[in-house]
Amino acid sequence: MQTENIFPVICGAVLLALGVPAVLLGMSRRGIIGQISLFRRGVETARNPWKAEDESLEELAERVEKLRSSKGK
Question: How far apart are CA 11 and CA 1, in angstroms?
């Protein structure tokens, strides 16, 4: 077995084990993760730009129906 290759392999494994979490932490603190979630919300809005209005109109229709049914009694 070659013992001269053990030191670089151990150093590489330690750098990898410490480097990946550090990079992810740095990304989240710089707001890259926040930008990804902002992009996702933008895509959802682009798919259905009237979602909030549709939900409000649906709630209004339900309230009107309740009022109409209570007046009829």
Answer: 18
Summarised one tens digit per residue, pLDDT across range 15-57 is: 888 888 877 777 766 667 677 787 888 898 899 889 889 999 9
CA distances from 33 to 26, 28, 38, 49 (A): 10, 5, 9, 23
DSSP 46: H
- What token pair was written down for 24? 């992810």
Structure tokens at 42: 């933008």
Of the chain, the end-to-end C-alpha distance in Å amounts to 92
Entry pTM: 0.43
Residue 1 domain flag:
no
d(CA 70, CA 73): 6
Q: How many domains does the chain have?
A: 1
